[in-house]
Amino acid sequence: MIAPTFLQILGLSALLLSTSAFPATNSNEIYYLANCSKCDITDDNCPYYRSLMAYYLDASKSENGQLPTATSEATGLLTWEGNTILGSFTGAKDPDFSATIDQDALNSQFYNIVGSGKTESHNFTCYKDSDRLLYRKGPDYCYSIYWCQWVGQG
């Protein structure tokens, strides 16, 4: 076995220090494109009546009905598909998020890539969700139609 030289060890130490000296960007943040109803959508008489974007600083905090870190709410029901929608968020690391969802996204299988999103500092990949209940607040039941997650650098 060949022993590493002092310079190789020094170089490796510098690399380790340079990567750990700067905190990693939170790759756990996630945006949901959601539609809300005033009751459980499994009831046929319970249509969606408005749309919103929900931002979670930590995606794991969006799995069990928790309220989002911030929301950007529309005045009515949006058509996500075939459009670019801009949301503004108070409390998000980047206050503006835009999502572009493919025209035929409603026909995609759950969890397939259906579009993209963007903040000032990151690009996001958007996926088709299963219309699962994201959270309840007051009279609203908000269901995830799509989610957008940062997956890598940029």
Automatic annotation (TrEMBL):
Keyword list, A-Z: Signal
Signal peptide: 1-21
Name by which UniProt lists this protein: Secreted protein
Upper classification of the organism: Eukaryota, Fungi, Dikarya, Ascomycota, Pezizomycotina
